[in-house]
Write a structure and sequence with these properties.
heterodimer; A: 319 residues; ABC transporter involved in vitamin B12 uptake, BtuC; 1% strand; B: alpha/beta; Rossmann fold; 2 domains; 4-stranded antiparallel sheet; 9 helices
């Protein structure tokens, strides 16, 4: 299935990395296990965003909404309906995808900044619902103490669950990007006019991308609930959407793994520098400013370029 | 095959196309000429659906296509290249053509298979026929200008068109490249039984390549006919070519 898609060494490295992650809870304190789990959740969310922003070229400025919808969906389904938990787990990402479809259908008619603005307004509408509707969503208190199956509760168990779901989603996202759908999406990003001229219904294609991205954001929302066992309106607030956008930018828009690096950098800054000073965003801002000047393709984009040059140099010497 | 009748399109108060008429029969090579701003590109954009006509008719294979979206018109068998470079800059040459081939075979929405294993033969066949096969793995944005123009044509061929529209296929090329490209275009049209509509600044090329010529001025068709007829038309000589001497 992956034949020729990734290099043998890369595959080996990734497999080794996965094994290391499997054994981490045995080695490091549970606080760090919790931290890594939250990085994985954010990384998945940022990668789902990057599918539409980096590879789709859409101004998806309020992606956090679908994350929040996924989280609220599982919280409400588990708490308020008699549906078995595991079905709730499967249903919730679809609820997020449905939200993506509805918001996408409205936004896709507009382009660029207008797309972004209408999306922010529609997303804020959902946020207001979560924030104000005390009877249903718990208002700004949120919902706490959401029961989870014992198999995936506790830091270590939820870590394993999140890790496995994360890996499955990453593989799925990778396959989607490499599929005809993915390459056509990137073609439409590069040149929408040309793409229409070769018979592609670009708007429909982009809408489908939004739905897929919302689905994966919904999964990230479910994973958040698995980890935190609570939901609150901040999950749908637009500042979170901005944060994940920055993660994509930090890591590199046009790379597949960039958002993971971006999420790791961002959360590390918040967690480890946030302890020292509440002005950690100041440091983030400086890093961002430097990045935009010196590494416009993002951290991972930069290293990818470096690696490519080195490989080329090696093959040239070989000849 | 293609029939354009009294087509009108304006941008605000400016009528870019103001009564264009054109008939293209199957298997013909037809050229549109006219000074800058005569409305040639606008006419092509109207035919391929990138612009919607204000009034007038465009019919293709007996079917009204005026005002349809570009992707629908493409499905009916009209493919085009663009005057300004319009390729997928970040993708390889192979992928540029493959995207069109995938679209043509209705595979664009497939998310379950790796694209790199699909339509390889079809794509390579097109690349070979235009002579870009040895550059298949290069990033298209890094090709020379001439090769990028050829790639434009290759992408259009990916849709297996019956009717090919080329908007200044040789713009910005050296005389050698221009000749090679025109030979390529002529070969492709005869090999694949294409009907070709193109516009071009180089008068010599137009008169040697086209079966028929349509002359536009200020958005209007002033004459349509064989090269001989166009050459002898007084209005053309006055309005466009500006004197008898250059048309022996």
């Amino acid at each position: 299935m992956f034949k020729g898609m990734i290099h043998k060494n890369t595959a080996f490295f990734l497999a080794a990395l996965f094994v290391v992650f499997l054994f981490l809870p045995k080695i490091i304190p549970s606080y760090y296990v919790y931290f890594i789990a939250s990085v994985l959740v954010m990384a998945l969310l940022a990668m789902s965003l990057n599918l539409v922003v980096g590879f789709g070229g859409l101004f998806q400025f309020h992606h956090g909404v679908f994350y929040g919808v996924g989280a609220y969906a599982i919280a409400l389904l588990v708490k308020k309906t008699p549906i078995p938990e595991w079905i709730c787990f499967i249903l919730s990402p679809f609820v997020a995808a449905l939200a993506g479809l509805i918001i996408g259908l409205i936004c896709i008619r507009l382009s660029k900044l207008y797309f972004a603005m209408i999306q922010i307004s529609l997303g804020s509408l959902l946020w207001a619902l979560a924030f104000r509707w005390y009877g249903f969503t718990g208002g700004d208190d949120g919902i706490h103490g959401i029961p989870m199956p014992s198999m995936i509760s506790g830091v270590n168990n939820s870590y394993y669950f999140i890790l496995i779901v994360f890996v499955v989603c990453i593989v799925a996202l990778f396959m989607i990007l490499k599929s005809p759908f993915g390459s056509t999406l990137q073609a439409a990003r590069d040149n929408e006019q040309r793409c229409e001229a070769i018979g592609v219904f670009v708007k429909r294609h982009q809408l489908f991308a939004i739905v897929i991205a919302s689905f994966f954001a919904g999964i990230a929302g479910v994973l958040f609930v698995v980890l935190e066992r609570s939901v609150f309106p901040d999950l749908l607030f637009w500042t979170l959407s901005l944060e994940i956008l920055i993660m994509c930018l930090l890591g590199g828009w046009f790379t597949f793994a960039g958002p993971i690096i971006g999420a790791a950098i961002m959360l590390s800054l918040r967690t480890f520098i946030g302890i020292q000073t509440e002005y950690w965003t100041l440091i983030l801002a400086v890093i961002l400013a430097l990045l935009i000047f010196f590494l416009p393709e993002g951290v991972w984009g930069y290293f990818q370029e470096k690696l490519k040059h080195r490989k080329e140099a090696v093959t040239e010497r070989g000849q | 095959m293609l029939y354009v009748d009294n087509l009108i399109n304006s941008f605000g108060d400016f009528r870019a196309v103001n009564g264009a008429n054109l008939t293209v029969e199957e298997g013909e090579i037809v050229a549109v000429i006219g000074p800058n701003g005569a409305g040639k590109t606008t006419l092509f954009n109207l035919i391929t659906g990138h612009l919607k006509p204000d009034s007038g008719r465009i019919s293709f294979k007996g079917e009204e296509i005026g005002g349809l979206p570009p992707y629908t018109i493409c499905r009916k068998g009209i493919a085009r290249s663009f005057q300004l470079l319009n390729i997928f800059q970040r993708m390889t040459v192979f992928e540029n053509v493959q995207v069109a081939v995938l679209s043509q075979h209705n595979r664009s929405m497939n998310i379950f298979r790796p694209a790199r294993n699909m339509m390889i033969e079809e794509t390579n066949h097109i690349l070979e026929s235009v002579g870009l096969l040895d550059k298949a793995d290069e990033i298209s944005g890094s090709l020379s200008h001439g090769d990028q123009k050829i790639l434009e044509i290759a992408i259009a061929l990916g849709n297996e068109p019956d009717f090919l529209i080329l908007d200044e296929p040789t713009a910005g090329m050296s005389p050698e490249e221009t000749n090679a490209t025109m030979r390529l275009v002529k070969r492709l049209t005869s090999e694949q039984g294409l009907t070709l509509l193109f516009c071009e600044h180089d008068i010599d090329i137009v008169f040697s390549a086209a079966d028929r010529i349509m002359v536009m001025q200020l958005g209007e068709t002033i004459v349509e006919g064989t090269p001989q007829e166009v050459r002898e038309n007084e209005q053309v000589q006055k309005a466009y070519i500006g004197g008898e001497s250059c048309l022996k």
